[in-house]
Amino acid sequence: MTKRSFLIVVWALSIIMLKTQCGMAQFSIDLETGAGFVTQNDASSSWKNSNGELNGTDGTQYSYKTDFKNPAKPVIRFRASYGFGRTKRHLISFLAAPLQYKAKGSFQQPVTFNSQVFAPGVETEGYYQFNGYRLTYRFLIKNTEKLRLGVGLTLNLRDAEFSLKQGSLYERNYNRGVVPLLNTYLKYHLGGHVYGLVDGDIFYIDNSGGAIDYLGGLQYDLNGKAGIKLGYRVFSGVGSEKGNVYNKLLAQSIIVGGVFQF
Predict the structure, then answer these.
(1) What are the C-alpha distances in Å from 183 to residues 8, 63, 91, 179, 240?
(2) Per-residue pLDDT tens over the stretch 115-152
(3) What is the pTM of this model?
(4) How many CB atoms within 10 Å of residue 247?
(5) Residue 261 burial (CB < 10 Å; 0-12/13-18/19+)?
């Protein structure tokens, strides 16, 4: 599925739901921003097997974290959600979660990337991208003022790329595809206007693939139609396929956000 096809599906589902459920629907927007920190980001143009062994001869493992200058970076996310049904226990949402940055540094040893050798001690520019566009259906198993607990399925369109540039030498790897994730949601009333919040997507991780993206924090509801949230988000992803590339990412962020219902 291409990015264009994925967005067409999102648009079509939105129109269908608006036409069939508009009398019992609730639309909301969720915005996040904050500071993101890359804790680990290893890459190679060779792949790793399930034992964590690097295979192939056209790639050396390098790190966007240790080989490049990698300070904290601003992060931003946008989610539009559509709750429907008599008690709003069904929800469809679309999330745009971009992650991309450039960094400069130099290698301590020769690095082979797509069978090209990048020399040590020479300024090198690295580019990394792992954008996600997610379509989620979630059902609230529990839906009370005290506790909201939901589970669902997410289809994540991965738009990934990493590259190296050293003078006129430039090599790039690019990958796009759709993967299923398990979505879970918990919102617990702590007292007054304050709620505990745990929300995210997960797919099994081993040395060859998977993803975890979770937020834990607090939400302060202002008037039932708007809220402010503060929390910590962790994103971890591993990608390695036979005949393809290897990448292992661990990124963390401190976020502040707003939730608005209409």
Answers:
(1) 22, 30, 12, 13, 23
(2) 899 999 999 999 999 999 999 999 999 999 999 999 99
(3) 0.85
(4) 23
(5) middle
